[in-house]
Design a protein that fits this description.
By secondary structure, the chain is an alpha+beta fold. It has one domain. It has a two-stranded antiparallel sheet with strand order 1-2. β1 and β2 form a beta hairpin.
Length: 103
Amino acid sequence: MTSEKKLTPAEKLAQLETPKTFSLYAPVGDVDKVTLREPIGSEINKFHEDVSKFGSSRAMQQMAAAISGLEMSVFLKMGARDLTKMSNYLNSFFEDAPETSET
């Protein structure tokens, strides 16, 4: 039996593909793919502000629109499966964030 090493949060984060292109299950108009990258600090700050104003779903759509360069209207018309896979990807940058220490 082979035992797989459990990855630390830092190792999981390091393995995230960025940018990552998603093929849509259900294209929105002429958009059939969306490319996302790792969010930067200002986008993370805006996301947290938007969560308190609009809720997590709308805030995630707004962050995906900003990162992808697509209009928000594309994400408002997007199917749940496509939104979920992109949300899961973006949430991966926030989950189990490794603690850092200044040296």
